[in-house]
Amino acid sequence: MNDHQHYFQSRIFIRGTIKVLTGLHIGGNSTEMSIGGADSIVIRDPVTNQPLIPGSSLRGKMRSLVEKCRNEFSLEAKNGKFEGNPGKNPKNITTRLFGVSASEKESVIPQRLIVRDAMLQNAEILENAKNTDMPMTEVKTEVAIDRVTSRANPRQIERVPAGAVFEFEMVLSLYGDDSEDEYLSLVFEGMQLLQDDYLGGHGARGYGRVKFNVSKLSRKKVEDYQNRLDAQTMEYDIPDSLRA
């Protein structure tokens, strides 16, 4: 990559909501579980105790789906085990959008996409719901059957219920000669792939179906930062599938 391609060009802000269509489970950690609590809990904001969608979960799933869709991800057999081999070629647009970790860098590849944590928007509705089991969530009991002994092993999984709405923000940074349309199209491709897949765990059992609604696009160019100006609303053809 040439030096001039490192120059900052602009930043695009993609904002909207994520609606949960089927129970969503993105696991959290807890050092203390109350009696009668779920076996597997969801991640929550430590201050508000509200469920959230980590930006890392959202970004990671989008990257995985786009890499597979564009044939930039493969499985390799090593020592009798299959290991993922994501594409790291700087010529691949997926690599240029999501970047690579510092330990994997063979050349300078600016990270272009930031995905922020998505915070719960309709907490009051969930708090007042009559059929929730834990604060703003439901507990789904599942039974795993041992195929050899036929023994039933019940487990309780906490889920964010269908109808929960989260506010999301993604920030796309462009450099040098980057094509705005090319990178925005790739971000929207990842969102569309995710809508047709699932977010979080247990997707094969129906969990984690979500719907995006992109409500606003705005742009802030390098000169806007220099002149202390706010981001300007963009006119852009957002895919119909990403609208409410």
Fraction of helical residues: 10-25%
Question: What fraction of the residues are assigned to beta strands by DSSP?
Answer: 25-35%
Main beta-sheet strand count, sense and barrel state:
7 strands, antiparallel
Overall pLDDT confidence: 86
Overview of this protein structure:
The protein has five helices and eleven strands; from the N terminus they run ββαββαββαβββαβαβ. The protein has 244 residues and is α+β, with helices and mostly antiparallel strands. Strands 1, 2, 5, 6, 9, 10 and 11 form a seven-stranded antiparallel beta sheet that branches. It has a two-stranded antiparallel ribbon with strand order 3-4. A two-stranded antiparallel sheet has the order 7-8. It has one domain. The model is unreliable at 31-36 (pLDDT under 50). It has helices spanning 55-69, 93-98, 123-127, 180-195, 222-226; strands spanning 8-20, 52-53, 73-78, 81-86, 113-115, 118-120, 138-145, 152-159, 165-175, 210-221, 232-233.
